[in-house]
Amino acid sequence: MKWYTLPGPADFIDGVMQQMRDGISVVVATPNFAQPNLEDAFVEQLRHTHWAPERVTIDSPGDPLKWLTDSLYLEPVQWVGWNAEKLCSQLRAGQLIVIEGVTALNWDAWWTFLRDFEVASRQRASDERPVLLVFVRGVPQKCLQAERAALTTSIWSGVFGELDTLTYVDQRLRCIRKRARHHKLIVRQIAALALWDLDLADYLINQPERDVFDIEVILQAARCALGRGDSTLGSNWESGGLDHFDGVDMLHPFALLDGSDPAKELQRRMWTAQAAELLPLIEVRRRELVRSLERHVPCPLWIDSKRQIRSLEELEIGSLAYVAQTRGIRGELKDRAEWLARCRNILAHLGLLSDGDALDPRLYQ
Questions:
Q1: Using an 8 Å Cβ cutoff, are 137 and 110 in contact?
Q2: Against a cut of 0.85, is the pTM above it?
Q3: Cβ atoms of residues 323 and 293 within 8 Å
Q4: Residue 270 in contact with residue 239, Cβ under 8 Å?
Q5: Which pLDDT does position 168 carry in this prediction?
Q6: Peptide bond into 262 cis (omega under 30)
Q7: From CA 153, how far away is CA 305, in angstroms rounded?
Q8: How remote is the C-alpha of 272 from its chain's centroid?
Q9: Which of 203, 243, 271, 336 is 20 to 30 A (C-alpha) from 137?
Q10: What are the sequence ranges of the domains in the chain?
Q11: In 10 A of CB 123, how many CB atoms?
Q12: Contacts within 8 Å (CB) and 24+ apart, 34-38
């Protein structure tokens, strides 16, 4: 599926396009490691909504004014006195220029040019202005103060949320393999590890399901496969190591690997995915177990001579396993009760189920 049709990215792109419809030039600021085809997605959506963007990519460290003039094939009568105001006057109403390749190395020069261009464009009515869409990668947010009457900054932060990633992983998995009984668990686990990094999500989607349970090994393999094995991902937004995800600042999994993850955050994220999917399933299996045990265990009964139970439905899975052990239940019924109790106990103590337990068909009957 096209990731930019997901709710979070679609809302961000729509917001940028609305600013440009109002005659405001926009700086879209992203980390170094954002969606690799982010600019392509914007251009496709712009064309889909009947814009005619002119796309230029910076290929030299020269003066932005001269570079943009040359890139647009404008021919000043003379370069002496040529400035942003004269450049703006040569552009037609509603003309959209998409500029790519601005980085921390050339941002200062481009920021100076953009301020001058904003002043010049403000001399025209909002529906008669040319507008710039400038993509900036790897510039710290504190350096991106570009809020003016005809110039604004949209920061690519907090764009993706859990719903976006879950939807993306779900649809991608459905496209490449038959839907398994444990499909939702795999979706949750991949989304919990990948967060906003859809390249990482794509890698995990294409791996054997059981490999995803070995968190550190699969992430190290993903890092190498994605060409990021030789670089350390900083724990800041501009490097791609930190983002606002559903209202919480979270570190990228590769950044956690770099720091050896002392707080076991990766394990906690995986546990959250397992608990959300498996605890309700264990409860469903508990209720089925109650109906099976009722044929063999009459009620009321006493547990430890302290508590009288009028119905097995009153017991949680650990107590049901105890009843099965002490009331002479044998075979598959007893094994199932003990296994469910063990799985529930592991999750209750913030532990992770192995692939053998988490994918066991008995959970998905």
A1: no
A2: yes
A3: yes
A4: no
A5: 97
A6: no
A7: 70
A8: 16
A9: 203
A10: 3-155, 162-262, 275-364
A11: 12
A12: 34/137, 34/156, 34/240, 35/3, 35/198, 35/199, 36/199, 38/135, 38/156
Please state whether beta strands 301-303 and 307-309 pair in parallel, antiparallel, or not at all (unpaired): antiparallel
Distance CA 8, CA 189 (A): 20
DSSP helix/strand/coil, 339: helix
Contact in structure between 131 and 26 (CB atoms under 8 Å): yes
What phi and psi, each to the nearest 5 degrees, are found at residue 155? Answer: -95, 125
- Which CATH number describes the domain made up of 3-155? 3.40.50.300
Token pair in block for residue 38 = 């982010």
Question: What are the structure tokens assigned to 205, written together?
Answer: 């989607």
Helices (H), the chain: 7-21, 38-48, 64-71, 84-89, 107-121, 162-176, 183-194, 198-205, 215-225, 253-258, 265-293, 317-326, 332-348, 355-358
The pLDDT of residue 305: 67
Cis amide prior to 300 (ω within 30 degrees):
yes
The pair of three-digit structure tokens given for residue 334, joined into one six-digit string: 């007893």
Other C-beta atoms within 10 Å of 185: how many? 23
Which two structure tokens, joined as six digits, stand for 121? 């464009």
Element (H, E) at 48: helix 38-48
How far apart, in whole angstroms, are the C-alpha atoms of residue 88 and residue 110?
A: 15
Strands 25-30 and 131-137: parallel
Q: Match 């439905």 to its residue by tokens.
A: 313
Q: Which range has the worst mean pLDDT, 108-117, 242-251, 286-295, 302-311?
A: 302-311
Listed residue (307, 306, 298) closest to 327, CA to CA: 298
Q: Which two tokens stand for residue 133?
A: 């869409």
Please report where in the chains the tokens 């019924």 appear, as a residue: 333
